[in-house]
Amino acid sequence: MPLKVMAGVVLAAVLGGCSVDVRDPTVPEPVQSPSVPATPTITPGHDAEAVAARDLPFSAGTVLAQGVPVGISDGLKEAPGWKQVKDNVAGESQYLKSDGCLVAAKVRGNQAALAAGDDRASTVALFKYLDPTILPEYLKTGTLRWGDDPDAPPRTVEVLALEPAVPQGGRATAVLARLFATAGSSVYVSVSCPDAATLASARADVAASLPLLPPSN
Question: Which of 10, 82, 141, 192 is most open to solvent, judged by the fewest CB atoms within 10 Å of its CB?
Answer without folding.
Answer: 141
